[in-house]
């Protein structure tokens, strides 16, 4: 259970911004269209997106322009600048609590990409005071807690997630990993089994089950799980983990 690399995390964050609701709400139709266009540019061409956002800001673009600028900064890899801008935006925003929590969620993700784990933790906790029980923020906070080896807190966050969304595959997989680090292999096995019942092809769950099998001495079962990931997944952290575990397994079995 680990956050992805800064580059992968930036792409994931930009993808989440693209797929989800906007972080702010533009009040007028023209502003809403400009916000949509600015965000698209910030994601695909961050340099041009930042220029557009700053120009719009100078003309009174307000919160939508500020948010667009932050997204462009993430795309440029300027995570600290983006995080600070998003925090400032959330503090000054007149939007509702859920929207401000979303701004802080993005800020925390940017702080994580900047390697500022403690700051990310603090910002996520503030976001959760604005939006208690928000599952996306809880998932992010669980990753932050795992990053600093606070696995019990990660379990607590993920337990809240599955209580609200009992079919959330990644939450069971993440909690299985956290339980494993807490040496609670029975709970870890139950969670990974649940994840694979919900999604038999989940790459992350297959990697985790392989690790649990390896810990139990079932090398053949572990190899089967990791090979399935290698053979079916085109890329990403799960594929990297499967390959690394297979390499380690081969080294250990040859000794």
Can you walk through the features of this model?
By secondary structure, the chain is mostly helical. It has helices at residues 6-19, 29-44, 46-58, 62-75, 79-92, 97-113, 117-130, 135-147, 151-164, 169-181, 185-198, 203-215, 219-232, 237-254. It has two domains: 1-130, Serine Threonine Protein Phosphatase 5, Tetratricopeptide repeat, CATH 1.25.40; 133-255, Tetratricopeptide repeat domain (Serine Threonine Protein Phosphatase 5, Tetratricopeptide repeat). Helix 2 (29-44) runs antiparallel to helix 3 and helix 6 runs antiparallel to helix 7. The longest helix has 18 residues, at 237-254. The protein is elongated, with a radius of gyration of 20 Å. The model is unreliable at 2-22 (pLDDT under 50).
Largest sheet composition? none
Which residues form runs of ≥5 with pLDDT under 50?
A: 2-22
Overall structural domain count: 2
Give the topology string: H per helix, E per strand: HHHHHHHHHHHHHH
Helix content: over 70%
CATH architecture of the largest domain: Alpha Horseshoe
**Beta-strand percentage range:** under 5%
The class by helix and strand makeup works out as mainly alpha
- Give the terminus-to-terminus CA distance: 28 Å
Query: What's the pLDDT, averaged over the residues?
Result: 89
Based on Cα principal axes, name the global outline. Answer: elongated
Please compute the radius of gyration using only Cα atoms. 20 Å
At the first level of CATH, the class of the largest domain is: Mainly Alpha
Give the number of DSSP strands.
0
CATH topology call of the largest domain = Serine Threonine Protein Phosphatase 5, Tetratricopeptide repeat
Helical segment count: 14
